[in-house]
Write a structure and sequence with these properties.
With about 150 residues, the chain is an alpha/beta fold. The protein has 7 helices and 5 strands. It has a 5-stranded parallel sheet, with helices on both faces. Helix 2 (about 25-35) links the parallel strand 1 and strand 2. The radius of gyration is 16 Å and the shape is globular.
Length: about 150
């Protein structure tokens, strides 16, 4: 039988940008992330502010609400196409809707995953550390690949 330490999720470390317009949903994310001491949370209430913060702050992971008041999640993913393609960060879509064409399109443009709302502590604490580690590994591989391309 596996020991608790063997089945525990990896320790979460890194920076997350949450782009969410509903205060209650943002408070839930804040409360869930507060249980992960190695994580810094950045917040944006609009798609445009989220795009700006994602490009200037370079988080490891973006949690993106698909239904924002100014521009939708799909437009945010399109605006962030270059850093997503360059693996500077991963994007996880947040939606209360069933799997929709907007989610499919965003995933085809490079979004890493989608999580159905409301978020649960079990999901966040199990999947967020892995998503952060994966995002950081993606970035390191891309930087190494680019470095080899410049010297070779």
């Amino acid at each position: 039988m596996p020991t608790p330490a063997a089945t525990a999720a990896p320790e979460a470390r890194g920076t997350i940008l949450c782009i969410e317009d509903h205060p209650v949903n943002m408070e839930l994310v804040e409360a869930l992330v507060a249980g992960l001491p190695g994580v810094t949370l950045l917040k944006a209430a609009t798609g445009r502010d989220g795009v700006h913060q994602a490009t200037t702050q370079q988080p490891d992971l973006v949690l993106l609400d698909m239904n924002l008041p100014d521009i939708g999640g799909l437009e945010v993913v399109r605006a962030l196409n270059e850093p997503i393609t360059q693996r500077r960060f991963r994007v996880i879509l947040l939606t209360a809707d069933s799997f929709s064409i907007e989610v499919v399109k965003a995933m085809s443009l490079g979004a890493h995953a989608y999580w159905h709302k409301p978020l649960t502590a079990e999901r966040v604490h199990a999947e967020l550390p892995r998503a952060l580690q994966g995002a950081q590994a993606d970035r390191a591989r891309e930087e190494a690949r680019q470095g080899r391309g410049r010297t070779g």
